[in-house]
Amino acid sequence: MKRNWKLSIIACLAALVLLLSACTANNSAGGSGDGEDGEDKKILRLNNGQEPTSLDPPEGFDSASWVMVNNLMEGLTRLDESHQPQAAMAESWEVSDDGKEYIFKLRDDAKWSNGDDVTASDFVYAWKHMLDPEQAYQPAFLAYVIEGAEAYNSGEGSADDVGIEAVDEKTFKVTLTAPTGYFLNLLTNPAFFPVNEKVADENPEWFAEADTYVSNGPFKIDSWSHDKELIMVKNPEYWDADTVKLDQVNWAMVADRNTEYQMYQSGDLDRSSIPADNAKELMESEELVTEVQAGDQFLRFNVQKEPFTNEKIRKAFAMAMNRDDIVEFVRGIGEQPARGFVPYGFETPGGGDFREENGDLVQDDVAEAKKLLEEGMAEEGWDELPAVTLTYGTNTENERLAEGVQSMLSENLGVDVELQTVESSVFSEEQTKLVYQLFRGSFLADYGDPVNFLESFTTESSSNRTGWSNEEYDKLIADSKTQTDEAKRFEMLMEAEKILMDEMPIVPLHFYQHVYLQKTNVKNVIMHPVGYLELKWADIE
């Protein structure tokens, strides 16, 4: 059964299937320890899966970093329990009649964990830092809705021309290139969080260690043993500290799902993902929680490497997949097959669903796949298909998927595919250099609008990583961002998706959903569809 949810009210890009939260003390899940005045401390224990890439907001643009940054920091707006953007560092704002100018009033009690005031200058500093072309931060493209941002980030403009201004200490002005209905959603993305300008000027590596990290969110860092454990504690300087019920959050960094599940069973974790080998039995567990997630898993072709320079061969590989088998037997956690790139759940102006209205744009059709493969090889003059290698980042889930794809291509097309596993950090870096031929990809929404998925494959997007380029596609995406008629904007996005799926630089496989186990005494841990784990309202009973 398809899950529809109003993604227009949520915000903010990446795979958080490995995001886990758990609580124990004295080897007992959901436990407590001695606190001040003899009171018990509420300690929540989580598994982040790995060391965060970076806790500098614009640099840590991935799921391993976002979940921590989202609980340490806060932007102008924050997603609430219903996934709607609400006032956060900004207590209020005004929007001009033409929808292009926002004036945010920061809270008088907005403080950093070291006691400094959070100021409008902190936002100006952070956003210009994100856009600095010398830094080449991946999420910079998200800010292109701001006047002058793209020109500065591309090296063709000045930082002084970016449409952001500290009017005074607590007033922050933003000028957009065009009305942007999802702007308040966009601002909940960690890339738009402030940075304490004074601290960063004194120590450019302020974000690298526990004793130098300065936060403005519900929690602050107490200790950090790299690659092993990070401990957060409640931030007493946070403006809404009275809402925060947890005293402490302990993050483990365990990559293996089987180990994680064993920790959950033994009481060392109170929240765990589901190992593939145990999926069938655990899907019936009373502790199972299933939630919507805006993202999908897919394969990227490098269209500059043979044999995927040929469009028909790309389509043959895409049509040789059995997506129903992938979600049932390879994944096994109740997800939906993906026959387009934009997931279910994005509401159209007419009240429908983007995915349903744009339909299935790729078919599972073995007979047609064989025909296209033959035609593509004939076009290239190949009697034998060039060798194919499928590359993926090292972990058991990726391996299981790769083996499933390998089996389907062998059985349905008679193509032998070699598998190559690469350490995750290396894999991420080399994708952008177009090193690989065929490789696993995944996408989690950065904010709540379908353009976020589709803009990833424009020619200049850092998320493209396929070598594919289409002028008509680029123009549709660019024009959609200045189109104020929502019905016309969605028509542009649907047409763009059809082009993407027709030329097939990627192979959609399945849409994600959050599926995990959680102990019953852990309450109000919020998993936003865009992937952020939210602990502001979490509690342990």
UniProtKB/TrEMBL annotation:
SUPFAM superfamilies: Periplasmic binding protein-like II (SSF53850)
Protein's cellular compartments: Cell membrane
Alphabetical list of Pfam families matching this protein: SBP_bac_5
Entry membrane topology: Lipid-anchor
GO terms, biological process: peptide transport
Sample GO molecular function, one term: peptide transmembrane transporter activity
Main location: membrane
One Gene Ontology CC term in the entry: ATP-binding cassette (ABC) transporter complex
CDD domains linked to this entry: PBP2_OppA
Keyword line: Lipoprotein, Palmitate, Peptide transport, Protein transport, Signal, Transport
Name recorded for this polypeptide: Dipeptide transport system substrate-binding protein
Native species: Terribacillus halophilus
